[in-house]
Amino acid sequence: MGIIRIYADNACDLDQPVLDELGVKLFYMPVTIKDKTYQDRLTIEPPEFYRLIEEPGVIPTTAQITPVNFQAEFQKVINETDDEIIYIAFSSGLSGTYQSACVARDMVYPARITVIDSKSASVGYGLTVIRAARAVAQGLSKPEVIMEIEDNIKRIQHLFIVGNFDMLKRGGRVSATSAAVGNLLNIKLILHFVDGCIVPLEKVHGLKKARKRMLEIMEERGSNLPDQLIGINHSADYEGALEMKKLIEDKFGCHDFVISEIGAAIGSHVGAGTYSVFFLTK
Question: Domain 156-280 - what CATH class?
């Protein structure tokens, strides 16, 4: 009898050493910048990505992973092993990648391939991947691992502070006028996830007040925060992420964190200066 293999994609924003330790393999979304296509976190690392998009007029674009990419990997595992596959996908509310994987699953061997919509992004998605991999390492059965994944999906909370409105304007999430006013007045937009989609939550003046408000929302929504693995990410500001970590440690007594830089797949839509925290509700 084979093992359970956990797959994810690069939108989980987990660093390679973490993935290696967990035994998780990634599929990679393409990102195009100035007519050159990269694979996020494979052929372009976050620091280079943020350097490139600083140039005037540069608008990165992303694309979903195709069924062909999934089919090739799934078929190899099915042909060469007795292993079971669980692929946890980037939110279907933000990408067609989940649907691509479902197409590939149906073409290969549906009985041994499970595709799950994380309804999450970045390290919020990554926390579900970590829980799945740890469940496999503990020797849980495939149905039990799936139950762990589904519990995390139901409970995971995403809170984002967007650094500036330019990338949101490019993506059509705010108007040009709103973007200009927001940047001028130093308004920070806090967003969260609702059923796998990014939804504006509140507008706050200044980063300091935005961080304070995020902590208040964590307190309102969180459950047993000191006992949780807390996710934090950032785009081009590691020191800012450490400041957020210190605030969470001091307020809630949390001690277990995963901190990562937002890669090109997510960064193409939020830009530099974004911070996020991820945790579980009841």
Answer: alpha beta
Contacts with 171 (C-beta within 8 Å, 6 or more apart), sequence order: 269
User: Who wins on pLDDT, 62 or 181?
Assistant: 62
pLDDT at 200 over 90: no
Helix axis angle, 142-155 to 122-137, nearest 10°:
150
pLDDT tens-place string over residues 64-107: 999 999 999 999 999 999 999 999 999 999 999 999 999 999 99
Which of 257, 259, 207 is closest to 234 using CA atoms?
Answer: 259
| Averaged confidence pLDDT in the chain | 92
Delimit the CATH 3.30.1180.10 region(s) of the chain: 156-280
Interatomic CA distance for residues 209 and 193, integer angstroms = 21
Q: Which residues of 133-196 form beta strands (DSSP E)?
A: 156-162, 187-194
Token pair, residue 51, equals: 């350097």
* Domain 4-153 annotated CATH 1.10.150.650: no
Task: Say how far apart CA 236 and CA 167 lie, in whole Å.
Answer: 14
Q: Which residues of 238-264 are buried (b: 16+ CB within 10 A; e: fewer)?
A: eebbebbbebbeeebebeebbbbbbbb
